[in-house]
Amino acid sequence: MTAALTSKPAFLSPPVKTRRDARLAVANIGVAIGAFGIAAFMALMQALSRANLDLPWRSAGMYYLSVTAHGVLMALVFTTFFIMGLGVAFANASLERNVSYPKLAWSGFWIAVLGTAAAAWAILTGKATVLYTFYPPLQAHPAFYLGLTLVVVGSWIWSLVLLATWYAWRRDHAGRTTPLPMYGMLATIIVWLIATIGVAAEMLFQLIPWSLGLKETVDPLLSRLLFWYFGHPLVYFWLLPAYTIWYTVAVKIAGGKLFSDQLARVVFATFIVLSAPVGMHHQFMDPGVASGWKLLHTFLTFGILFPSFLTAFTVTASFEVAARAKGARGLFDWIFKLPWGDPTVSSVLLAMLLFAVGGFGGAINASFVTDSVVHNTAWIQGHFHLTVGSAVALTFMGTAYWLIPRLTGQELELGLLAKVQPYLWFLGMVLFSIANHVTGLMGMPRRIYDATYQGSAVAEKWQALTLTSAVGGLFLFMSAAFFLLVMLGTVLAGKRTETRRVEFSDTLLPESNRSSVFDRLGWWTVIAIILVLIAYAYPVYSQLQMQTFGSPGYKPY
Amino acid sequence: MTMHVHVYERAWMWAAGVIIVLFLGTLAYAAVAQGLRPPSHVEMIDPRTVWDDPRFAERGEVTQADGSVVVTAVAMTFAFQPAEIHVPAGRPVTFRLTSTDVQHGFQIVGTNANTLVIPGYVSQFTTVFKTPGEYLIVCNEYCGTGHHMMSAKLIVEAAP
């Protein structure tokens, strides 16, 4: 089954209406950047609060409200909408066809926007100060739960549209391997569809009926099981699009070629298989969950380090290829030959550096012995600002500099700000993250309005470092503001230019475009589901069988 | 299907595999040889009747016949009851905790004593304090507007 014999000749395919899909992608990324802007402002308020500046709005209620808004808008809204926009753009460019069912795709977008508006209203009016983990029996306004559910429903529609697009492409290209950018997005979608079953069950069977008064109590531990079943693969939903960008875009812009296409597929397939059956490593300190299950999840968690190690090699090697093509000869001089002035490339390189540290921190969190020292301390926010806050967010910002001009047909404006922005983010994040890791090791809890504990001598020792984290926060806000200015400037005043194509990296050695075992995504999904059943079916079943006492809702905010 | 894997790539994959096996080996050693399993305790309680429940009706420290100590405490918005706990150094201390309302955390700063407190469940763990002194206990799971005020004191006394 060679590609040439079975695929339709290209001239029979309908012409690709790039503008049509570009509008959908830009709409999604626009909502993402809007949410990012509000969330960044919330973070500024927290930084000023951490610095103990007595500002008029400063209060405990406002602080916890801003933490909730920052978490929901950054971790759930910014990421999801950005990934949806990226998926549409990547499907269009890598499959060279329009996405299927455009009306359905737009309705998914508007459902997610409506959901975001409802959740944002509940949070910003103080009716949902439950943080982005929304653990019951803290209870929020029903609009919060309904809104977030609609965001997930919108993302499901987006997933189905991209899957349909891929099926249509496969019909026309039998025997061909899926282009890597689309392969990365498909892995993202599969991880997301498996993961969101957990949060959908929590919302539909527990939180929504309970917040509407149809159900008197919920079992908080069952909620935690369902939430973390969703919560850990959620991080791979964020990370896999970033990896896809590292492999297929950043390498290309740097002038390099992908060191190995096949190993990139090994990485994505491993994530499909191992993303979900690991969630209990977030519940090491929970009562009610049997020790043996926590141990099984620990072991699986370490398996998932492997694909990230591979990514570190392949992407770095591909960058080295770029630098050697520009004449680098020595052992290390290639590092300096990389285009550090290109905001997309520098964003990805700095994101990779921060992620290397964050990854080892993750191994510490996943070891239950060391987790007991850092669990729920400031260490944790130090950790995930290196992972989602840097590896993912910095990559997405860098990607926007490259992608938005290609989608809107405009020149990037305020290029100097764009050049400086990734470095400011890096500096801010180093200060913020080191301060939080260290205060966490010293025992400072995460998410506290005031870290003085009525003049406690131990808490006194944290103070210098909390100020450092506040300074880091100010740099981060400046960086976020630069990013927003560049985006606004580009969209509002960017010079019209002839549209450049969205292009992806080639491989270093010619590789077969024949379909391989990695293209059998159905089988990888089946293996993933079997592992999920092994890791979760019995614990959830026994939780439902045991006599538990539910909790009524509380709103102590 | 033959897969081309560069020699450097192959070496890196092996190195990554070895690191992961070492990580897992450490954990397996801790779990099997040292008996260090993930903390866990499965016991239910009705969160609405905690104060009347015989297990939590009396709170504070009780010294057992063998010299070990059991500490019973309740977490609620935004305090621990009792607010001051006295235990001897060098003896096993078992903490038993539950919540009357939302989820809380119980963390003794400067030690690895750290547990979540979930309404409807009893958290239990045993530890030994080597160094006498005053320790700060904090709630490390967001529980509402007064979360940062929720703390208590642990006094570890030199054993007689």
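Chain B touches chain A through 69 residues (CB under 8 Å).
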